[in-house]
Amino acid sequence: MSFLRILTVLLFLVSSLAPVCLAQLGKNVTIPAGSEADRQLAAINAADPSQKLPLIDEFAKAHADDDFQIIADEQYVNYYLNAKQYDKVFEYGDKLFAADPNNYTNAINMVRAANEKGDIDKLYQYGEKANSIVQNYKNAAASAGADAEEWNRNKADRIASLKDDQDYVRQSLLGGAYRATDPAKRADYFQRFARMYPDTPEGEQALTLAASSYQQAQNRPKMQEIANAALQKDPNNIGMLLLLADDYAEKGDQLDKADAYAKRAASLADTAKKPDNMTDDQWKQESSIQKGLALSTLGQINLQKKQNAVAADNLNKAAPLLKSNAALYARNEYRLGFAYLNLKRNADATKAFTEAASVDSPYKSPAQQKLAEIGAAKPSAHKKAS
What we know:
This protein has two domains: 173 residues, Serine Threonine Protein Phosphatase 5, Tetratricopeptide repeat (Alpha Horseshoe), CATH 1.25.40; 121 residues, Serine Threonine Protein Phosphatase 5, Tetratricopeptide repeat (Alpha Horseshoe), CATH 1.25.40. Helix content is 76%, strand content 0%. The radius of gyration is 29 Å and the shape is elongated.
């Protein structure tokens, strides 16, 4: 391995909490031992951090027109990354990509810089770049005259050595999408994530989150487009079944389809296998919420069809399953209150609305309003009775 590659790995190891790339993808620039460039780089490596930048500037000026400029840009990236001057990291990282487009260590450094700065747009820009570098390498064929079997074996070894870095990129991208506050932007990030990681549990989860984010952004056509496309690919996608069923039920639209989707989701929730990336407790909670949401959606469909007794039964069954999610639990109790009102069981309706108002959710204020209305109606009802 050249001095450049050793130096890059050492600096990255010292400066980063992210995994270290053990197999560089991109150009290899050899530094002749004992050369002036070798001496300059040794001085940079040995210098105190406060003294490094002038030495890097000197090296860059001395090698403005050759491949050693790749080394200079790597030095700048590492220096500014340690200094947490992220805009400078991006500036020199982009210069480095122009000279060495497949520099995977540079891509990881850019992801780290974007992560630390909290710039989700750049995080996805460089995360996609990192993944494309690996994908291009995976697709690369052996050069003419090379032993194909040996090439593929060496390629598999190099890709395996990148696993920690690839995991870091994937986790960073997923975390970045979750942090996005604008629902439309969040939906876009989740879609991009799903395109990068198709046919994985996380990719499937990201598609569901993209669709639900579009729902939050009140972009119903886009939500339905994603959800229906996902169901065409996998008719047993519980997340998409629940999302569409819940949407139809809330809007009073396509209630027969909503009913079929909710019942299928409830059945699948009983038999679904725990994903490998979940603990037993996490899976127990998720499967409980899935089953509870299916039952609550069926209750809302029953309400839309004026089947109030059946609605109350489904909503009561859903309640304990949704307790771990305040918003879903409160909405379920709010629906239950209306089922009881329609059945003229005001005491039970009061209890349901009180439960809905007891947790912090968007249903707190509407439930309190319904309680006030029920309370205001009691004296007049008593007066008529007398």
